[in-house]
Structures are given as structure tokens and as C-alpha cells.
């Protein structure tokens, strides 16, 4: 068992892995690219996210990690609707558009959208769109984790996938 002094030393130690080493390691994980959107009382917003993951299928649930310093944070915090639009292989321009520093109307002017059951914008040419309501939110470090229960899905089986790997885009063709 650790003494109080040993516990204090462990808790106040600097992290063993610095931020840059963590990011370099994470850059080796290939990930799907998503434009995550919302609409509701807080207004309309969308951002690019690779930190999206399947949680469970009963109830069908995804998670999305959102940096609390993002310009879209307040809007997502005030709305319950979220649509995770996974990009098709030809949509890297859209990823860059929603990836930061662009005015929100300009971001949405870059593509065609429909309205989902929840009211969130669905990207017409997405590989797949998961229309969701946020069932739970929690904070870890700099990010909020949104647990999103899927209420409807729209899928284009013939499209390829846009993959982010080694800080760049790669294109996976469908079968
Ligand atoms: N989870 C996140 O919040 C992510 C944020 N980004 C943003 O896009 C910028 C460009 O990213 P890259 O070109 O891939 O180069 P980078 O060197 O900044 O990031 C490399 C990898 O580290 C991870 N990462 C980056 N920033 C992170 C963060 N704040 N929290 C948790 N994981 C993070 C991601 O997996 C990313 O692909 C980043 O600096 C960041 O602002 C990109 C990917 C994921
Ligand atoms: C490829 C890529 C993946 C990203 N993934 C995430 C993510 O998973 N979570 C996140 O909070 N931000 C992520 N970002 C950054 C957000 O897209 C960006 O902060 C957001 O568009 C808001 O930018 P703004 O604060 O300038 O408006 C990613 C950016 C890029 C280009």
C-alpha cells in the first residue's frame, strides 16, 4: 500500500506522456471523418470530428468528443439534436470547411442538407448519417463527451470512405 506521501508524489507528477508525443502517436490511428451538426434552440452549428466511436447497439449509441474551446461548443451545449455525418471519399473540402475558423453560414453553404427527425442537418451526400438525441454528457480534460442515441440512419452503400491518417486524407473506394 502507498503512503500518503507516495500518493501525493504520484498525483503531482507531470504526465509521463507529453501532449506532442500523444498527438504523434494518435496520428497513426486511421479514422473516419465526420461532420457533426446540430440545430435547435441554440441555433445551427457543425464541426469536423474524428473522435467518434460506437458505444453500444442497445440502445444504439455513439459518442462524440468535442473540445470545450471550439466556437461551436455553446451551440451544441444548448441543443439536444446531433447528426453524425460520416464523409464520403470525395468530401475532403467539406472536412476542411467544417474543421475550423470559417463562419457558420459559409460552412453550411458548401453542401446540400436535409432536416433529420431531430431537426439536425443531414448531409445529402454523406456515406452515412446518424441522427441522434444526446442522452448524456460528461467532461474529461479539455473535451466534453456527448453520448448520442441514434433515432434514424441514412446510408449510401455505393460511396467510398474518407479516412484521416498521418495528418492527411486518404480515400477508400467501396466494393
Ligand atoms: N479529438 C480532437 O479534438 C481532434 C482535434 N483535431 C484538431 O485538428 C488539428 C489538426 O490535427 P492533425 O492534423 O491531425 O495534427 P495534430 O498533430 O494536431 O493531431 C494529431 C492527432 O492527435 C489527436 N488530437 C489532436 N488534437 C487533439 C486534441 N485537442 N485532443 C485529443 N486528441 C487530439 C488526433 O487524433 C489527431 O489526428 C488539431 O490540432 C486539433 O485542433 C484533430 C483531430 C482530433
Ligand atoms: C480532421 C479533423 C478532425 C477533427 N476532429 C475533432 C474532434 O474529434 N473533436 C473536436 O473537438 N475537434 C475536432 N477537430 C477540430 C474541429 O473541427 C474545430 O475545432 C471546429 O471546426 C471548430 O473550430 P472553430 O473553433 O474554429 O470554429 C478536427 C479537425 C479536423 C480538421
TrEMBL record:
GO biological process: nitrogen utilization; uracil catabolic process
tRNA-binding found in the keyword field: no
Gene3D superfamilies documented for this protein: Electron Transport, Fmn-binding Protein, Chain A
GO molecular-function terms, A-Z: FMN binding; FMN reductase (NADH) activity; riboflavin reductase (NADPH) activity
Family matches, as SUPFAM superfamilies: FMN-binding split barrel
Record bears the keyword DNA damage: no
Enzyme class: oxidoreductase
Catalytic activity: FMNH2 + NAD(+) = FMN + NADH + 2 H(+)
Domain (Flavin reductase like): residue spans on this chain: 26-171
EC number(s) recorded for this UniProt protein: 1.5.1.42
Keywords assigned by UniProt, alphabetized: Flavoprotein, FMN, NAD, Oxidoreductase
NCBIfam families: RutF
Homology family: Belongs to the non-flavoprotein flavin reductase family. RutF subfamily.
Protein task: Catalyzes the reduction of FMN to FMNH2 which is used to reduce pyrimidine by RutA via the Rut pathway.
HAMAP family membership: RutF
Protein name (Swiss-Prot/TrEMBL): FMN reductase (NADH) RutF
Organism listed in the record: Marinobacter salinexigens
